[in-house]
Amino acid sequence: MARKLFLGLLWLALTIYVIASSFTKTQQGDFELILKLSTGELAGINPIIIAIFYIMGIFPVIYAAFILFDSNQKISPYPFSAVSFGLGAFALLPYLALRQTDITGNKSKNWLLKILDSPLTAIAASVAFITLMIWGLTQGDWSDYVAQWQTSQFIHVMSIDFCLLSLLFPAILGDDMQRRGVKGWLKAIAFIPLFGALIYWCLRPQLW
Fold first, then answer.
1. Alpha-carbon distance 117 to 109, whole Å?
2. How many whole angstroms from its chain centre is CA 155?
3. Diameter of the chain by CA atoms?
4. pLDDT digits over 178-200, tens only?
5. Other C-beta atoms within 10 Å of 30: how many?
6. Which of 12, 108, 142, 177 could join 182 via S-S bond, C-beta 3.0 to 4.6 A?
7. Buried-state track 141-177, b at ≥16 Cβ within 10 A, e below 16
8. How far is residue 91 from each of residues 40, 80, 148, measured CA to CA in Å?
9. Minimal CA–CA distance to 3: which of 98, 105, 104?
């Protein structure tokens, strides 16, 4: 109950913050920036912003590889997972707050779950994630990023979303470990912020 309350209040607080911050930050140029990032017109855009934007497209895949294996839930994880490709943590937090502890796992073997259960999918997504992060960290202009974070509503909210998704994995890892019988060092390393979840996803035992 405490976990549900915390996640619910976190979602509410973030929603209020985003609405309030929209009055102090500019949206001018945000739509154009989103359009350029979405269509691959990346010339002149700070690599940090490019990296975060594309990583935000990988995060929903990572979370889907955990929450879509839930079963016996009163609400389906699929709509929340789909919407998270656009809204990130703001779509996932309500599901994480409402879901019940579930260690049985989804027994169906549909094609999507088979793909998400495959270590090849995990490795490919992790390599893309880490490559983008290293590129953004090493090639980006940090002073420009900070300036845009302080003024642009889109970059400000996207950055907060990135941090949230990096830290929310423990809310779903425990159930996945139990349903797969994970113990030992893999269980310990999984709770390292962000990278621990990627390592766990790549090495966890398959359900089928």
1. 10
2. 16
3. 51
4. 888 888 788 788 888 888 899 99
5. 17
6. 177
7. eeeebeebbeebbbbbbbbbbbebbeebbebbbebbb
8. 25, 6, 24
9. 98
Q: 18: Cβ–Cβ under 8 A, 6 or more apart, which residues?
A: 90, 157, 160
Query: Between residues 170 and 146, which one has the greater pLDDT?
Result: 146
Reduced to 3 states (helix: H, G, I; strand: E, B; else coil), residue 118 is coil
Residues in the chain: 208
Say if residues 66 and 122 touch (Cβ distance below 8 Å). Answer: no
Taking the model in full, what pTM does it have?
Answer: 0.91
Q: What are phi and psi of 179, to 5 degrees?
A: -70, -20
Cβ atoms of 173 and 200 within 8 Å: the answer is yes
